[in-house]
Amino acid sequence: MEKVVLLYSGGLDTSVMIPWLKENYNCEVIALCADLGQKEELTGLEEKALKTGASKLYIENLTSEFITDYIYPTLKAGAVYEGRYLLGTSFARPLIAKRAVEIAQKEGATAIAHGATGKGNDQVRFELSIMALDPTLKIISPWKDPLWTLHSREDCIAYAEAHSIPISQSKKRIYSEDRNIWHISHEGGVLEDPSNEAPDDIFTISNTLEKAPDSAEYIEITFEKGVPVSLNGKNLSPVDFLDELNRIGGIHAIGQTDMVENRLVGIKSRGVYETPGGTILYAAHKLLEELVLDRDTTRFKETLAIRYAELVYNGQWFCPLREAIDAFVDVTQKNVTGSVRLKLYKGNIVPAGTKASKSLYLEDLASFSDTDLYDQKDASGFIKLFGLPMKVNGLVEKHSSRKS
Question: Fewer beta carbons within 10 Å, N or C terminal of the chain?
């Protein structure tokens, strides 16, 4: 009997897949749940997996690795997909796939199965990662399998009920949700119609704007070489740091994003994301970079950030180009050390002071006063040379208009 490692979250799709795989592939199913900080969602998971037919369940605590090896590089790169999405699901998938490959090799499994649909991005992220890390492993993707006869979430709910599989989804709250320490995403249900406002009850880890406090809160974040190390003067582990920042940001309704994005497969989809701590970190990191990065490096880094975000979103984490961009980014981060103070108020992040030991901002140079470093008379010659192509173009146009 073949062994198959199933990427298992305990959600609707993967709960259904344990008995389905056994029925259709006559295999032993070893379930893997990656603990990426999804909190209470892990409660009772082992009992549920074994009851529904798994031979064993690995619950792997990967939260710290997730933050240091996946979140922090993406944060330092400043990568944001389509200007708004902070990639919370995207960079979690390669880590899950990496651990699945390791367990498959340990258990002697011949295949890895996943519950991603054939219309989404996660199928690509999982499968590209598995292909890169162990191309000898087979990949089972039930949603694309001819034997799979469940064509909607309603069908999956009906299958679960028929097989006495406990699920948290209902036809009333049918959202597809993915949670980890960085974010929680919400898709499906009433959100499939972009003309519908996201209902208040969708928000899980953050207040609505109306429920956020009527008074602001100040926080201070300290970075070393682009990595956050302390919050409000207290050094914290990466997990404790992000947990606390999520708590504070959630109180003030920070990091709620409602967007229609372009999936890799060519479909537009709507997602509502809650990323309270992550949104604060991106804002603080950018403010600190404004002080320490020169203009040319900043501009070039911004162009690479777009490409980096595309690589992560498209499931190409384990590719040479991402590693090469990381090498560039690490050089840019050598002086990104300092502290950023922020004011949080009803979804807003307001700068409240930034300090860096190697700041390129010189007060006397930035002021209106004359300094030894800058003679204002030099600007006249600079402007004449800088504007020379425009002046030549203007002369040519003027001469042409006289002829006509």
Answer: C
Structure tokens at 127: 């499968």
In this structure, the chain runs to a length of: 404
What does pTM read for this prediction?
A: 0.93
Q: Is 122 labeled as catalytic in the residue annotation?
A: yes
- Banded pLDDT at 367 (limits 50, 70, 90): confident
Q: What pLDDT shows up at residue 39?
A: 74
Q: What is the mean pLDDT of residues 86-97?
A: 98
Full set of structural domains in the chain with CATH: 3-176 (3.40.50.620), 183-293+335-356 (3.90.1260.10), 369-403 (no CATH)
pLDDT confidence of residue 98: 98
CA 276 – CA 257 distance, rounded (Å):
10
Among 9, 93, 99, 322, which one carries the catalytic annotation? 93
Q: What is the 8-class DSSP label of residue 71? A: I
Whether 84 is catalytic: no
How many beta carbons lie within 10 A of that of residue 44, not counting itself? 12
What are the Cα distances from residue 102, in Å, to 32, 60, 92, 134, 375?
11, 12, 16, 9, 63
The neighbour count for residue 187, using CB atoms within 10 Å, is: 17
Predicted local distance difference test score (pLDDT) of residue 218: 98
Q: Select which of 13, 35, 153, 178 is catalytic.
A: 13
